[in-house]
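2 proteins. here.
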Amino acid sequence: MAQIAPETTAVNDINSSPRLTASDRCDSCGAQAYIRVAIGSSELLFCAHHGKKYQEKLATIASDWHDESDRLLQDNRA
């Protein structure tokens, strides 16, 4: 499980976090992560598939949901 960097103290700072990159990997399968979920002082990273799969369950406990999965459509158009 990925952790928020020590210099990030507030969970709301997740929105100001850098864009997810190819080195950010899904905590479920290891594919490229497009979704970052903050739960308390921790964060989970998911590929688009697993993010959508767990969204309903995690939405009740997540303090933030950062979804960049729309980039998949943009990347395919280029």
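next one coming up
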Amino acid sequence: MLRRSDSILLLGAVLAVGAVGVALVLQHAFGIEPCAWCTFQRLLFLLFGAFAVLGRLARGSRAALAASSALAVVAALGGLWAALHQQFVAAQSLSCAFTFADRALMNLRLDETLPWLFEATASCRDANAPLLGVPFALWSATLFVLLVLLAARAAWMARTAPEKPA
């Protein structure tokens, strides 16, 4: 059972990191610039991926797998909140400068340290353009919902699985 739950986490990590990869291709190859909320969601996708990989590395420990799965759920819920905030609040304003997302990235200095990944170069209204008719924020929210479900399933499976003998 532990093996199956850490495989679910690995799938989640691949999806989360893949989402950031797609965002970077769209930004750097196709000129679709991100806003502060977009780049904040990138951070949460990467946090989810890191927690999921930690869970995968904790293969023999039910407690460590459950803890990393729970942290991945929290990261994905934060990402879901950020995506929905972008869609329903930030995209309705002319600027998303000095919002929570912008301040968080500036305080962490991620926009300076890794500008190719975390620098916001568009307004929230402009950045939430549709892709295949669906705004970017809703694509992101949908993926965060899937990640919440995957990590919650892994956490539940880890809690109920018997501990592997040492």
